[in-house]
Amino acid sequence: MRLSVPPKFSADWLEGVCETLDGMLMRYVPQLGGVLLAHTKHELVDDMVRIINECPFGVVEVQFHSIVWAPKVGQVLYGTHSLSSPSHISLLFAKTFNVSIPLNHIPLGKYEFEHTDSPDEDDESSDEEDDGDMFGASPVHERVSGTDNTDNVPN
């Protein structure tokens, strides 16, 4: 992988590589095709660092071991419901990644959005059975984005 390393690391380019990769953690990296979760065993491909034209950044080819999260289209992921709205459902996957499912990907024949009162509007709500979230949505095991139409689901 080719990286641009800031000039402050000119005394130790490998330290600059580590610092640059640390800045890419938990972000989508197109060269890797996914989200960089971890990196180790950094190694310069050659001992030459190029300074191109008047740019002070050193350009270096580097090899390293990495853990990349790259789900495939059509892969089924399970998340925890975090928010419902008329336009989308939000989930938290692996307690780390936010997932948004837009309305056009929600089966309308099976689910519908049902607005509920927020907790501060409902004075009769008790703390002992607070399964909803702070936006007044119901939990995923009861409703995804509203009422589950279970009458048409075979047993």
Write the layout of secondary structure elements.
Blueprint (H helix, E strand, L loop, with lengths): L1 E4 L7 H10 L5 E2 L4 E11 L5 E2 L6 E12 L10 E5 L3 E6 L3 E6 L8 E2 L34 E2 L7
Antiparallel strand pairs: 1-5, 2-3, 3-5, 4-5, 6-7, 7-8, 9-10
What does this structure look like?
This protein is mainly beta. It is 6% helix and 34% strand. It contains one helix and ten strands. The strands form three sheets. Strands 1, 2, 3, 4 and 5 form a five-stranded antiparallel beta sheet that branches. A three-stranded antiparallel beta sheet has the order 6-7-8, with no helix packed on it. Strands 9-10 form a two-stranded antiparallel ribbon. 10% of the residues are buried.
Which class best fits the helix and strand makeup? mainly beta
Oligomer: single chain
Helix share bin: under 10%
The number of distinct β-strands equals 10
Rounded mean pLDDT is 77
Amino- and carboxy-terminal Cα gap: 52 Å
Q: Treating each run of at least 4 consecutive H or I residues as one helix, how many helices?
A: 1
Order of helices and strands: EHEEEEEEEEE
Shape: elongated
Q: What's the story with the biggest beta sheet?
A: 5 strands, antiparallel
Radius of gyration: 24 Å
Number of domains: 2
Unreliable spans are: 125-155
Please sum up the structure shown.
This protein is mainly beta. Helices cover 6% and strands 34% of the residues.
List keywords for this structure.
155 residues; mainly beta; 2 domains; three-stranded antiparallel β-sheet; 1 helix; 10 strands; 34% strand; elongated; disordered C terminus
